Amino acid sequence: MEYYFLIDEDQMLKAILFDFNGVIINDEAIHQELINEILLAENLRPDAAEYQQFCLGRSDYACFQDVLSCRGRLVSTEYLEKLINQKAQTYRQRIETLKTVPIYQGLEEFLKQIQARGLQIGLVTGSVVSEVQFILNKAEIADYFQVIVGGDEIKGSKPQPDGYLLAVERFNQLDVNLQLQPSDCLVIEDTPAGIEAAKRAGMQVVGIANTYPFHFMQRLSNWAIDYFWELELERVESVLK
What we know:
With 241 residues, the chain is α/β, with parallel strands linked by helices.
């Protein structure tokens, strides 16, 4: 593993921001299944290539809008919100049937390490906030996250940088002395859309190979890892200061 960080003189690691699906929780297969079910109910045949192109790493709103548009269907905002709410309800029911929440191995220990170093912890996702909070509470890790930005709170889905920029704004609202800048943030992402969003926000990105292969993450991100325990915070801090 090698670092590929491009550092400016004022850069300092102050916060680590996580994506959610595919980074914190291993639930991409559940999301794909639920979206396929909704498409079938709309008399549309699911397409794996479309899911990868329009849905991975993006908000449900953007996913449904682009998939339906690709199929020649233009629907109202209200109709899209109905589909999103339907999926969110079914997702929660599906998670409730699981014996354990499929959180990625090593996550909580990694969160403890970040917290012990006095770094801020945030989460930026295309999922709706209520869905995220439900999972974090169920997995008993909600208290680690000071800031959560959901796909239902922003207009631009990843790869737009809106979510990450809003996270910085919220951290600074919580602590006016923090003076957090995008360049002070390290992002952990698993998809091309998420990596691009973080980079467009002016942040360094770790690509974790949960959804795409390691070599693919290595090409796109500043640094690539297979597992959380491979990310050496002490070394990252020595680079970002």
